[in-house]
Amino acid sequence: MRKTILVDMDGVMADVYARFFEIHEQETGQRLSVDDIAGKLEAEAFDNQRLWVTTPGFFRHLPVMKGSREALLKLIEHYRILVVSLATEFPHALTDKQLWLDEHFPFIGWQNTVFCGDKSIIDADIMIDDHFKNLDHFRGETLMFTQPPNMLVTDTRHRRVNSWEEIEKLLLP
Amino acid sequence: MRKTILVDMDGVMADVYARFFEIHEQETGQRLSVDDIAGKLEAEAFDNQRLWVTTPGFFRHLPVMKGSREALLKLIEHYRILVVSLATEFPHALTDKQLWLDEHFPFIGWQNTVFCGDKSIIDADIMIDDHFKNLDHFRGETLMFTQPPNMLVTDTRHRRVNSWEEIEKLLLP
Fold first, then answer.
1. Is B8 a catalytic residue?
2. Within A48-143, where are the H helices?
């Protein structure tokens, strides 16, 4: 049987940080870099982050993460891909997120999307995520996608991946 | 550890058939009863059902199933309750469904909501549902909530429950 990979959306399939930097610059005139917010959670890094993500439309227009579409098109030939996103806290994000997936990743399909409030309810073989709150409770193999919240962590609980090209090399036969 | 119950929304927590009958009568002048559509899936029973459920707002204003709120308020003292709804096929339903839950079942919380395209990905102890496509693939105990699609089935694969009062009697200590 094919192995199942749980793939996170924000920070992994969707380049949410590119959009955070953009809005922050529009609001403050200040251009932040990844190094400026290394080690911080989103809400610590950007004062208005909660306002942004609760605004209808925010998740509908995020840029696609570099290399994610190409890699997932290949991985789906060998694995079951489940997109799993912590999203029920923000009701207005839900419709936007599914419409975004339908547009940019139509080959995955609504059958393989999960919006939930706790990822530990789903068992699978591999998880690709950028947040410890998800990775730490997963029983399978974990790939930690490099993003500001995990950048400074040097322990080896989770295997670090810096790009979708690295994920391809690790997971494709 | 507490047992986990997966609770379906449409036809179990939300009285979607009451609304189907109402809209059907508005559109055709004909008042159908449960017996008229016994044994039929929603899309077989109502020609325009797909149009109705893809219209933004439909799931936001459904009536609450009789007895569901009272029963779940008691059950949540003894079980982990996860609301699990097949909903990602209809992106515009997602936001409406979470807002509806937040309004009518705030004690369950967004942490315990799951919107997905396939319920077999979630393992738990008990499932309350009205559709065989969900009940048949569940490994735990199944409670089949009586609704038109399952009304005529007499086999004993799943334990039939006709009301939330019956569920309380079965599951409360």
1. yes
2. 49-53, 68-75, 91-104, 132-135
